[in-house]
């Protein structure tokens, strides 16, 4: 009983902490050095696609005195783009081990070295006339992103009081969106001359002219940043579960509408504008919940000892999905044509139903409250308050007796 009372008192003192400048700076600069870099590298590689392909061709001519085949250029470009996700997968798989050795903060600090090495390789590749350096740099920055996207949400969730845990956790999503937006800004023709932004053809298929695609793409980055900021402001009032379900449901609706509008775009002149609105709505719906909240939930649904493994699994699924969509979507689009987005409609509907049935609300709840919610679902005994103190303070079972001795002496 005495240990339970001590656990409850310590927990309350932790949860009632106010927002401090130190906490905000840790969240912002941590996300700036991790999430922002991920978002930036997610989008910036597409802007200089024409330039990079020309660099590949010129390097090949300098080496072999003949131009490279078009198929080889396409292969090299595909590797350059996709190897980022492969690096992210490797980073996510290594998170659990690295955290055990270096800890959360140490992992974030050491992880910056990957970003520095990648930046040097990618920036010096042209000088060295080596496209291999660019590809290796993309892989290393992928490793950096894979580690960062797992460790940062875990770290923020553990240093933040429960009443602002969701808002602080959304720094991760907001800085990702800002990174994507920055990459899109640098892809504007005014900044890069004739280096147009590379798209997957969705906007062009919707009927828009190539000349205005960079500006339309820029607006998508702006709307996703705005949606992420609004989500961060309201998450502690509305809750995680409603935002997630709303996001997936809205995405299903707007993907369905986009499918309809794409089928009628050749018959009505103003139909491409409705398609554009649907694209913006899908992006806003994604960033309002599904884009950032899963990172927060992963840290809330698992005890401290289990979080590294949980984030490793979540990161692996994230990067595998990222790679699979990038690899398979062109084939899906070629097969289903304008009905390609119905695949995502089905995924969003299934996700909404599953979350409504299974996911408990974690807003303003302690880790014990969340454990009790799952205990009710699985019909197992509730954890005790002393177990909650172990989750918060990371007291190992074999240290529990020592904690009792200290408390008794006091």
Strand content: under 5%
**Shape assignment:** globular
Order of helices and strands: HHHHHHHHHHHHHHHHHHH
The first-level CATH class is given as: Mainly Alpha
What value does the Rg take, in angstroms? Answer: 24 Å
Helicity range = over 70%
Main pleated-sheet profile:
none
Number of strands: 0
| Termini separation | 15 Å
As for the CATH topology, it is Growth Hormone, Chain: A
Q: Please report the number of helical segments.
A: 19
Low-confidence spans: pLDDT under 50, at least 5 residues?
190-200, 395-410
Number of domains: 1
**CATH homologous superfamily title:** MFS general substrate transporter like domains
CATH architectural type: Up-down Bundle
Q: What would the average pLDDT be, to the nearest integer?
A: 78
Q: Specify the structural class.
A: mainly alpha
Subcellular location: Membrane
Keywords: Membrane, Transmembrane, Transmembrane helix
InterPro entries: GLUT, MFS_dom, MFS_sugar_transport-like, MFS_trans_sf, Sugar/inositol_transpt, Sugar_transporter_CS
Protein name: Solute carrier family 2 member 9
